[in-house]
Every structure is written in structure tokens, then in C-alpha cells.
Amino acid sequence: ETGVTQTPRHLVMGMTNKKSLKCEQHLGHNAMYWYKQSAKKPLELMFVYNFKEQTENNSVPSRFSPECPNSSHLFLHLHTLQPEDSALYLCASSQDSAGGYEQYFGPGTRLTVT
Amino acid sequence: QKEVEQDPGPLSVPEGAIVSLNCTYSNSAFQYFMWYRQYSRKGPELLMYTYSSGNKEDGRFTAQVDKSSKYISLFIRDSQPSDSATYLCAMSGKTSYDKVIFGPGTSLSVIP
Taking all residues of chain A, what is their mean pLDDT, rounded to a whole number? Predict the structure, then answer.
């Protein structure tokens, strides 16, 4: 595996379900990011981790819970989501958060909340 | 006023044309300016970044920054059908730790 991988690629979940998104980077980077991409809207930064420490929480609702066990892995735990949370969730990494201008993205997880 | 504005298109051009993609911004503190390309069902891919003003060229792609006008451009020469994608501009502040702000993207189609 190379670059940034994300699983699953597609996810359909009900509003009462609990699921997790996984991101793994194979670039030796130390910063990882979660973004939300909705149709016709700019990417919205959700969370930033730098050397496993959360450095940014962009006022994200608590139904989204990130976890970064090490610099290579990032999870986004989901519970009691709303239909408006349906979107493409993108993970990215950079050398560290000082290098945020050079981010490498995964392919995303397409989430549909029913 | 939005921090970063970008015409969503769609923009359709014939193969071989020169394409000009543009963004305007309101925050004079932005110092890093990036262009990403996003193919359908893929994540964004960094094309190039520039720091402060000036031009940067990489193959068929040229990025220009005009900080006095708060305007950035990406030019694509000899456009190819494989250039058909959504192009996102992005920028961040004077310290490289600053959050990156993305534009909504311009959809480009290059017709053979």
C-alpha cells in the first residue's frame, strides 16, 4: 500500500448505528487530518492531529469522535448521525502540521446516513 | 464575504486550449497558495503550492499569485482530456501552522 488509504470506501448507516472510518498513511508523516466534503461546498476541516495530539477541533458535533493511536493511523467514530452528515469524508496527512500547505489525501469514504 | 471564492463552472474547453482557473480571497494574511486536482470519486491531489507572490511553473501548469489584488490563477497549457477534473484552490496564513482554507472548486471538462 502506498500513500493514504481509507476504509471503507462506501458506508450506508442508519441514524442509530455506530460505525468507524479508518485512515492509514504510508508516507512517514506526523500530521493527519479529517475533512468533510459536501456537494458544491468547500472542504471543511474537522480535526487535526500532530504527533498523535489533537491540535484542532473545528467545532465538530460530538457525534463525530476522532482517535489517533499513532502517527500512521486515524479513525473517525460515528454515532447517532443525522441525514445532513451524508458526505465524502477525506483523510489527509502532511509531514507535520507546520507543513499543512502540502497535504496528501486519501480517496475518501462516501457516507450515506438514512 | 467568503474567505475564498472560486467560480464553480462547469468550464468546457476543446483539447489543446489554454485554461485559466482563478480564485479570489479576502484575508490579506494568506501566504501559502495551493492548487489541488480532484478526479471523480478520488481525493484531491496537490498540483503545486507557492509562497507569497509570484509565479511557479511545473510542466504544463503555471500558478500565479497577485497579493495586491488578492487573486490567484492556475494556467493549463495544451489542455488534455485527462485534465478533466475539479480544481480546488487553497490557502493558508503567514505561519505554516495556520488552517488551510479551500475554495469550492471549478469543474473542468476538456473535450477531445
Answer: 93
Residue ranges of E strands in A3-108 = 4-7, 10-13, 18-25, 31-37, 44-50, 53-57, 64-70, 73-79, 87-94, 104-105
Averaged pLDDT for residues A5-27: 95
- With an 8 Å Cβ cutoff, is A107 touching chain B? yes
The b/e string for A12-22 (b: 16+ C-beta within 10 A; e otherwise) is ebeeeeebebb
Per the CB < 8 A criterion, the answer to whether B89 and B4 are in contact is: yes
The more confidently predicted of residues A88 and A58 is A88
Share above pLDDT 70 across residues of chain A, in percent, rounded to a whole number: 99
A83 three-state secondary structure: helix
Residue A106 to residue A85: CA distance in whole angstroms: 19
Contact A40 B8 (CB under 8 A): yes
Residue A70: all three cell numbers together: 499513532
Min Cα separation B19/chain A (Å): 21
Residue B53's pLDDT band (cuts 50, 70, 90): confident
Residues in Cβ contact with B61 at an 8 Å cutoff, skipping those fewer than 6 apart? B35, B47, B48, B74, B75, B76, B77
Interface test with A, best of B27, B45, B72, B100 (most A CBs within 10 A): B100
